[in-house]
Amino acid sequence: MTRYILRRLLQAIPLLFIISLVLFILMQNMGDPLATMGGRKVTRTEDRIRLARQLGLDKPILVQYIYWLVGNDWAKTDLDGDGVAETPGSRKGVLRGDWGISLVNRQPVTKVIGERLSNTLLLMVTAEAVIILAALLIGIYSALHQYTAKDNIITATTFIFYSMPVFFFALLAMYIFAVNFKKWGLPYLPTVGMFEPAAGQTPVQVAWHMILPVATLSFGFIAGYSRYIRSTMLEALGQDYVRTAKAKGLPRPEVVYIHALKNASLPIVTIIALDLPFLLGGAIVTERIFGWPGMGRLFLDHVSRSDTAVVMGILMMIAVAVIVFQIIADVTYAWLDPRIRYK
Amino acid sequence: MDPKRILEINNLRTRFHIAEGTVYAVNGVSFALNAGETIAVVGESGCGKTVTMLSILGLIPIPPGEIASGEALYNGHDLLKMTESEMEQIRGKDIAMIFQDPMTALNPVLSIGRQIGETLRVHLAMDKQAIRQRSIELLEQVGIPDPAHRLSEYPHQFSGGQRQRAMIAMSLACLPSILIADEPTTALDVTIQAQIVELIQQFREKMDMAVIWITHDLGVVADMAERVLVMYAGFIVEEALVDDLYEDPRHPYTQALLAALPRVDRRRDRRLLSIPGAPPNLLVEPKGCPFAARCELVFDRCRAEMPPLIQVAPNHHQAACWIDVTTGRKR
Amino acid sequence: MAESTLEQPKPGIASLTPDELETPPLSLGQLTWRRFRRHRMAIFGSVVLFLIVIYAFGGMLVFSEAYSNRTETGARLQAPSREHPFGTDTIGRDILARTIYGGQISILIGLTAMLVELLLGVTIGAMAGYFGGRLDSVLMRTTEAVLVIPQIFLLLVMARYFAQSIPNIEFLGRTFSGSVLVIIFVIGITSWPYLARIVRSQFLSVKENDFILAARATGTSTRDIIFRHILPNSIAPIIVSATLSVAAAITLEAYISFLGLGVRPPTATWGNMLEGAYNYVESAWWLWFFPGLLIALIVLSINFLGDGLRDALDPHSRAI
């Protein structure tokens, strides 16, 4: 097992290099970083050229990539344009932990991302927990009540939610629970940010503010997973071993929740881990709508301002996370399914 | 009611309502079982043998299934009228059932030990130590070596024959008075078949257990049954003691079945006999004798009316036919 | 007992027919249509889809494109009224007309992006599945690489990459922002991995069939084997996937336009009509409700349709 994990990790490394190279090249045409960085101060041509040299923007792309990867403190930059390189660079490169400086606010990329990371994680982890719980409840209920009106209603409803674009749900939810509840004098949900500035960042504030974003992030997944669980449960319930369990006189809860569910829930583990990319994607739209100060919004802001360093930082972090989660998914599935664990 | 009788089925009818219509799976089956007796139920695939047993145990999914009529008296109590929790107490404890394919009938993600111990825990409320002891004993009794270690293993780690043995151990854990075995050897090699049959015989003798053995293999029947029921299209068409059935079959279907068996002592250049035609469409409500379309002796009454099961020879030899096959006279 | 020979059941025995729980044999097309018909949601979806398409394209006869782009700052943010049934937007444009023309673009983007994805996905998947070996490894690694980054992130980066002034396009006498092409291209080249994987696994399994072996043994060319033997037998999941990907493309376009990096005004799409609408949740619900509803409806109906197609064409696959 350890060998398998190591092998997967080793395979991932060249993949990550290639991805980073392709992405880096993509970044180059994203806009004018000089304008972003210098703002209005950089209008004189000499200033622009000097800034360009400082940032290494006058070098060919591959060289820039190498600087990004392993830094440029071992190379000299020609800052004053006399053709002689004399100033050593100050970057250590990604492989040594230096992700560069944000063009937007001159902070180290790691700090910029780090500040927002926990906010997004808070949303995502909560959403994931809500998703698993709700999907299991709804899916199992639906499977157990097959052919009844309740099941049909649930099936139709989940289908509708599964097809609904995230922003429509968000806007509808906002309209009903924030705007109209307020109009009708009901306690209403907040729609912006993590907490009321006046009240400060207390757990209660954050929790209250989290309700709409988490709901928005999770509803589509709940709809999809509950349908999946319903179908795997139905399949499991139709298997011979369930008939055997009943023939042994086991009480119904044991038959459903242990014999059937244990089989039905195996594939879910893999799917949940593999859906991480989609959850992250959903976070972008959600954070934007609700003004949640997370990585999604960070990404949006910095992409539109061509801040290569931060954008690369976020993308590579996501890539690593996705790959790691894929490995975790495979390993967990192999561990949970005795047919694979004891080959 | 005869005190030796532990199971009495009267006029059982089971149907399934599906998109294409209604499947008439069991159409008025009646038979009785005495304590310690072994009966075999034979018939081709789709004749309703399994559905009958599942109906008795309440294991037919309702909907789409429906028990249209009948009673299943176990020691005088009608199983078909019991609530689910009452049935749960009888299944696995008083009446046990084992199924055809041990690979799919065992839960792949639960250990064998757990699956054997379940009935002990649920029905006999034994504690963990006692359960483990008894499970090891059971595995030993069914002939699985090194039982203590194998308790924690999973079904896919056992061979086909061993799985079936484990199934037997599982079903007999609570010492039931009736064992229903639904084609337990069909999915196994011939050599293993003999061992399994032997095993069930042993248990039967030790526990004085009644066995209902469902099969389509007449050879197995000859080996171990005392009485035989022949089913066709959801009806019982003949019932007799084993020897009587083989020597003196009284229903055209049974005769055809026996004649179709390839035999070592026949001339080799004769063609193998087969029964012409095909079994009736179960979507059509049965009218008349189900075998009429394929019977050589058929006449009008056969198609109009279903013949009742009546005694045609001593020893409770019964057949459902409008013709006396020994004389050719119409009834 | 006398010898008997095989006999057909005597004709005229009406009550006892050969055991046939299936309906009498129908052609594959008829069977597919029957199954599809039974799937009421799919019918409902097709009808709604048809209505939306009529709305978007037929609406051209009622409103001119100039009207949909006409700004009237005096009439901004008006609630739905008789004159403007869907209200007006932040610069006074009639929302009803804009949803009509926006619908055309959104649907067009959905269809065209699907075609790009289809072309790429089928080609790559077929090559990987058929030729196997190193080609397969390389292609699969590429597929994995694309899948590692969530699609929206890729889309945003690429949309930005191509965002530098693209000229307007003249097509069929109308002017479109060049960003439409950009979006189509960008969605297409980030969506192919999903289809490629399906196609590859189809090819891998169909390839093992004996009739392929027979075709090869009789000297059929590789091109013919792929296009005339394997592809027709793998077509079912491809059709289903292609249908569903139209919905996905429309949704994706809506997302990136909503985030401000998609199709540029004045060309309208349902997505870019929603841009910034969340600032007006309270004050002007009609800004986001109508385009949002239309997107939701079209995606829903396409999903219903796709579900029905899946049941009809490929009954063995497990529908979620």
Task: Outline the structure in words.
The complex is a heterotrimer of chains A (343), B (331) and C (320). Chain A is mainly alpha-helical and 343 residues long. In chain A, helix 8 (203-237) packs antiparallel against helix 12 (276-290). Chain A contains 15 helices and two strands. Chain B has 331 residues and is an alpha/beta fold. An eight-stranded mixed beta sheet of chain B has the order 6-7-8-3-9-10-12-11, with helices on both faces. In chain B, strands 2-1-4-5 form a four-stranded antiparallel beta sheet, covered by helices on one side. Chain B is globular, with a radius of gyration of 21 Å. Chain B starts with a strand and ends with a strand. The model of chain B has no long low-confidence stretch (mean pLDDT 87). Chain C is mainly α and 320 residues long. Chain C has a single domain, classed as MetI-like (MetI-like fold), CATH 1.10.3720. Chain C has eleven helices and two strands. In chain C, strands 1-2 form a two-stranded antiparallel sheet. In chain C, helix 2 (40-58) packs across helix 4 (95-131) and helix 4 packs antiparallel against helix 9. The termini of chain C are far apart. Classes of the chains: A mainly alpha (343), B alpha/beta (331), C mainly alpha (320). Chains A and C meet through helix 1, helix 6, helix 7, helix 8 and helix 12 of A and helix 5, helix 6, helix 9 and helix 11 of C.
Topology record:
The complex is a heterotrimer of chains A (343), B (331) and C (320).
Chain A: H1 2-27, H2 33-38, H3 45-55, H4 61-70, E1 76-77, E2 87-88, H5 109-144, H6 149-163, H7 166-183, H8 203-237, H9 240-247, H10 252-264, H11 266-274, H12 276-290, H13 295-304, H14 308-336, H15 338-341
Antiparallel strand pairs in A: 1-2
Helix pairs in contact in A: 1-14, 5-6, 5-8, 5-14, 6-8, 7-8, 7-12, 8-10, 8-12, 9-10, 11-14, 12-13, 13-14
Chain B: E1 5-18, E2 21-34, E3 38-42, H1 49-56, E4 65-74, E5 77-78, H2 84-90, E6 95-98, H3 102-105, H4 112-124, H5 128-141, H6 147-150, H7 160-172, E7 178-182, H8 190-207, E8 210-215, H9 218-224, E9 227-232, E10 235-241, H10 242-247, H11 252-260, H12 300-304, E11 310-313, E12 317-319, E13 323-324, E14 329-330
Parallel strand pairs in B: 3-8, 3-9, 6-7, 7-8
Antiparallel strand pairs in B: 1-2, 1-4, 4-5, 9-10, 10-12, 11-12, 13-14
Helix pairs in contact in B: 4-5, 4-7, 5-7, 7-8
Chain C: H1 28-38, H2 40-58, H3 65-69, H4 95-131, H5 133-148, H6 151-161, E1 169-171, E2 174-176, H7 179-207, H8 210-217, H9 222-258, H10 270-273, H11 286-313
Antiparallel strand pairs in C: 1-2
Helix pairs in contact in C: 1-11, 2-4, 2-11, 4-5, 4-7, 4-9, 4-11, 5-7, 6-7, 7-9, 9-11
